């Protein structure tokens, strides 16, 4: 008998910036990027010429970026655009955590990130929204795939 699969609900995945959750968040995206370098070598003399068509890849850098979108509210209790703006204005990195609701004591991503951009959209007769973009500042403390060293 096949086991029932429980899918993760996106509403249960949250982001904190400088210790407070991103307010009225409608979605967020985490992107893990590898910078690569092509390595093309001439095939050995005994190999067919076509053997040189396949390039090798090398990783030259790793980065993580996070984007979040949300609705703006008059009386914000979490980290909305206006609450995050002073951290952006300092031009310094902030502590960011990505975590599962009700399991926020153990984030799956945690580290220093730079607030790369903030944007607000104010269409007539519609909700005012905002978006924020973050980029890692060095290697995060916690991220998927990082080996955990027991203390």
Quick rundown:
Helix content is 6%, strand content 44%. The protein has 151 residues and is mainly beta.
Describe the structure.
With 151 residues, this protein is mainly β. The chain has one helix at residues 81-89, and strands spanning 13-17, 20-21, 25-39, 56-71, 94-100, 109-121, 129-136. Strands 2-1-5-6-7-4-3 form a 7-stranded antiparallel beta sheet. The longest helix is centred in the middle third of the chain and has 9 residues, at 81-89. The chain is elongated, with a radius of gyration of 21 Å. The chain starts with 12 loop residues before the first strand and ends in a 15-residue tail after the last strand.
**Helicity range of the residues?**
under 10%
Determine the N-to-C terminus distance: 41 Å
Spatial sequence of strands, sheet with the most strands: 2-1-5-6-7-4-3
Taking all Cα atoms into account, the compactness measure Rg is 21 Å
**Proportion of β residues?**
35-45%
Class derived from helix and strand content: mainly beta
Q: Roughly what is the average pLDDT, rounded to an integer? A: 88
Gross morphology is: elongated
- Number of contiguous helices: 1
Poorly predicted ranges: none
* DSSP E strands, number: 7
Return the string of H and E elements. EEEEHEEE
Most strands sheet:
7 strands, antiparallel
